[in-house]
UniProtKB/TrEMBL annotation:
It is an enzyme of class 3 (hydrolase). Residues 386-459 form the Alpha galactosidase C-terminal domain. It holds the Pfam family CBM_X2. GO terms for molecular function: alpha-galactosidase activity. One of its GO terms (biological process) is cellulose catabolic process. This is Alpha-galactosidase. Residues 648-718 form the Carbohydrate binding X2 domain. It catalyses: Hydrolysis of terminal, non-reducing alpha-D-galactose residues in alpha-D-galactosides, including galactose oligosaccharides, galactomannans and galactolipids. InterPro entries: Aldolase_TIM, Carbo-bd_X2, GH, Glyco_hydro_27, Glyco_hydro_b, Ig-like_fold, Ig_E-set, Melibiase_C. PANTHER family: ALPHA-GALACTOSIDASE MEL1, ALPHA-GALACTOSIDASE/ALPHA-N-ACETYLGALACTOSAMINIDASE. The keyword Transmembrane helix does not apply. Belongs to the glycosyl hydrolase 27 family.
Amino acid sequence: MTRSVRSRVLRAALAGLVVAGLLPAGSSTSTAAPATTSVTAATELPGPAGDKAARPYMGWSSYSMQVYNPNGGSWITADQLIAQSDAMHAKLQPYGYEYINIDAGWNDGIDAYGRPTPSKKLYPNGLQVVIDHIHANGQKVGLYTIPGISKAVIDAKLPIYGAPGCTTGDLPVLPLQKGDYWGIGYRIDFSKPCAQKYVDSIADLFGSWGLDFLKFDSVTPGSGISDLSLDARDDVKAWSQALKRHNIWFELSWALDINYADYWKQYANGWRIDWDVECYCTGTALTAWPNINRLFPKLAEWWRHAGPGGWNDLDSLDVGNGQMDGLTKDERRTAATLWAVSAAPMYVGNDMTKLDAYGLELLTNREVIAVNQAGRPAHPLSMKTNRQTWFALNPDSSYTVALFNLGQTDADMTVNFADLGLNGAGKVRDLWARKDLGTFASGFTAHDVPIHGVRLLKVTPQKNSAITVNDDDRRMAYDGAWERNKNYEVPAVSQALTVGVTDSSPQSSAKAADLPTRTVEVNNNSPEIVYSGNWNYSSGRGLGDYQDDVQWTEGNGDSFSYSFVGTGVDYVTETDPGQGDVDIYIDGEFKQTVSTYLDPAEGHNKPQQVVYSVSDLPNGSHTIRAVKKSGQFMLLDKLNIRQESLLNPDTATFDKNAPADVSVQLGRDPGELDGIAKAGQELVKGTDYTVSGNTVTISKSYLANLPVGNTALDVRFRGDYRDDIHATKADGASVSLTFTGTGVEWSTALAPDQGDADVYVDGKLVRRVNLHNDTRVTNRTVFTATGLRNAQHVVRIVKVNGDVLRNDTIRYSIAK
């Protein structure tokens, strides 16, 4: 898909868009006031829909078929919408599907107050007849709009309904500023009271029609805009407030900027996290595998933000008919699984009158639907491979586990229960096959998971097991001002320590390298680089590439990502006239758009160009992700990773002719030292090395057996569990976990900036724990309670004093 294609499609469909409504010749100028509509009281859940958004919604959207069919408008006519509603009622509604969402192009004018009027051509008997039919089927109905207001409506200076003295001419920001991606309308100035009243008047009109859902498209930051040159946040807030009175679900689109996730969560019930799933293959296919594959790295960043009240939207689920989906059967099931385990809204994009048997099987598996409706977003164990395990811990202590094979061959895939946080045996059920597979002691292997295929499992802990719950798990309930990471964590990292082993004889000149930092070159074919989309590999190019090879793609939205330990990274590629822009993300945060374009006057295929570089990252674990934005090609040649040296080079040389222990000062607290290894072989603490203060001493008996030269030792440090932590500076802030079991323990960091915390079990203060320590250490068990009655319990931890309280893990025991 390209933005130009999408723009042409939508410009054709948006001839009479709602708030940005043009005033075409012959448009309605009705002065009739809207019918009175009841107002639903607000609920405690975020977003305007309240309890309605306690779970991801299920339904159908017209847009996939609108762009699949050459006459897209035919998919939002009264007859077509009624046909889709009836098909849903017969085939999918018994399984929870209930929304009929009408996308762009449903209206063709405005009334005398600048509010949208439904198309008379599409709905000759009125849109209300269609809405009433959908409601009579026990379903809900949705419509579409975008931010801003059109120039025609501004110039018309129409009165605003219910707001004496206000006109549409009062509304825009002056001078006029573009209000949406396509340039259809202009920004509204929400510092003016009339602006909110205008949005309220439209929301009240929608409420009088019985609207249940509103898709708000071209929301920025997002929607192809990587900066604040377009900013629709004021529109989002205004619409959220207006829709809340009518309990209307508010969905934002598209490719929302994750840096503003907290804002979207405050005001909306869902948000599209990526570009359109459609391939824009008119009459050929609805979607394509790269458009599914590229969602995995996005979800790895977004999953924490989904929960009751607001959900990560992956766009239409186009898996209902193999003759139009554009996916293989395995890819269709993988897509359905990804939507389910991500707790994403499951709305079909197919013609529901033509669902095939396999599509119905995918869309009506009650066990898979239950995974989706449980609202427990899964997350990956690792993104370092294309064979990925995604999992979620459920309130009943079971795990949902999806084994995704995104690689190019069939593969056996193993999940170790300990990696999930389960210490003990688990009973495994295959949810797609609806079959129990048995009880396994420590893990499960799925054999021959097909290319682009999946196995979806439920793992139920058995007796005498224990569950470790990470700080970012949705089962952790935080009260007060908490932050995840923000430099409070200590990543579990490995760093190279180089010891020079020398020979004092005249012919030897080897010595320890004086390297305060080092650069590691990672070639494009490294198995730890994860490619998302349709990438190709070329070698033997003879153009001066690093190791004479590159990885390349032509698909906008395709990306690569690489996780590393260090302080900096360079993206190295070739530049060429056939290449364009690439968006760079570090640790999930957009950094900048870089150009890989080369002016033809300067030549072609200019190799090994550093197009992006950063050198001031905190020393620890990071991820770079690069996404193709434009141009015909995007290439990756190599990545340069900068790492700090732990070595004090003045004290780290060992002379074989004058044997002595070598003392090495470390760049961090050795109290967190987890071990030292060379070529995967563990050194024995106390024999091969000792630790004292800030110094590690490597024994002469070990060094004497090493060859002359510089020996790289892998020094590993303990970090917070899964390399993250939650922290608060507010006294009285708390974290709690509800569990069923017979024992519980809390593990966290100790540090100089920490003080006391009170631990409550079932509402009773059990112990005050002191978390102060002269040095920073992690993974310390600071509270344990055993012998609890086998029932549901709540453990709650409250900050008492100190600068910071950190929460890492809570572990509980399953009854014997």
